[in-house]
Known about the structure:
Strand content: 5-15%
CATH class of the largest domain: Alpha Beta
Helix content: 40-55%
Number of strands: 8
Radius of gyration: 23 Å
CATH architecture of the largest domain: Alpha-Beta Barrel
Bound molecules: 3-methyl-2-oxobutanoic acid
Order of helices and strands: HEHEHHEHEHEHHEHEEHHH
Mean pLDDT: 97
Strand order of the largest sheet: 1-2-3-4-5-6-7-8
Oligomer: single chain
Amino acid sequence: MSKKNVLNIKECKNQKKLTMITAYDAASAKIAEKAGIDMILVGDSLGMTIQGNGDTNSVTLEDIIYHTKIVVKNAPNTFVVADMPFMSYEISPAEALQNAGRIFRESGARAVKMEGGKNILPQIQALADAGIPVMGHLGLTPQRAAMLGGFKAQARTAKSAEELLEDALLLEKAGCFSIVLEAVPYKVADFVTKQLTVPTISCGAGKYCDGQVLVFHDMLGLSDFCPRFVKKYANLGELAVSAVQEYIKEVEENTFPAEEHSFNINDEEWKIFAEKHPQ
Ligand code: KIV
């Protein structure tokens, strides 16, 4: 499969469902690429999955650049999007451009993602004008969880659904090549998807979007907490605990390492050594 770019991602609308997963390190990047995913997101969810924090707000620009570099190196044939972390774009379009420029140049990501609607239009426009593709993110925007009263589904009233639609149309006009809709009722996501010419990517927004994104650790059962909309495709967390418990048991019982996990010395050499050190 050839590496995606912004143009053929847009062309997938109404043609092929887009697939996206987060990755943060060499192992997750290689797994995602081997599996044949269309896009990798180096999400600021790394604040929770990698750093073990309760939210995404403490993730820094340096964190994103560090993890994205690793992912790009280990998934060289996959389109990589990097999250703009909290407070790296809100202050001004100039600051957003400077920080997005650093991510783009230093990490090798081919697009950035920003959370927000009409409040960040000048930022999106500044990046698009400079040639940095932007993926939008509407609905539940975790960086604003404090303002939203927590990690809650959004656009569940007629008024807020209207606002979401308005924001989505504005993001498209400002130059977003795609928009993530997180924790949005499927009927609203379906309607918004049909009004846009750019693909929508659902994260808990139902199956009528143009693609889906899941957090690597959530879908593989490696997170302590998992949102209701996530399907766990494996329970690697439990498997890993059992494997480590078996290792502990075998070490304590002295059954690991077995002969095939040990090195040997050739008999001649051992004889010379042993003769020199009689026991
Ligand atoms: O940070 C992230 O992983 C995200 C996805 C949940 C869309 O923004």
